Amino acid sequence: MKFTILVIDGQGGNLGCQLIKLMKEQLPDVEIRAVGTNSSATANMLKAGGIAGATGENAVIVGCRKADIIVGPVGIVIADALMGEITPKMAKAVGQSSAKRVLVPVNRCDTLVAGVANGSMTFLLQDAVDKIKELVS
User: Global pTM?
Assistant: First the structure.
């Protein structure tokens, strides 16, 4: 079975880009779709290797219905996170999706995740990819 992974990110899409690059290296048989909260994030994630991309609230809603795994910063499940780029409808779509969610615990934008050591971004992203590997195997 080929898994569809939906990467959601905002602002410049940097976290999403790094995740896509790691997944392309370590999970060559998955289908990676990129959805940005803005066109810059989407374009950058597509450059990183996403096979398809879309932008905005409706793209998040539709993508969440079709994904097996959703990955992105923890803010994608919090309305008004990412400096307001995550709408309440986006957060609801991610939270209500039947997909498995792998959320990167980024302590930014007024959201602090208790119990998460301040590891490097490299460590956090590799840990996310390791969790995705477990889900697809």
Answer: 0.93
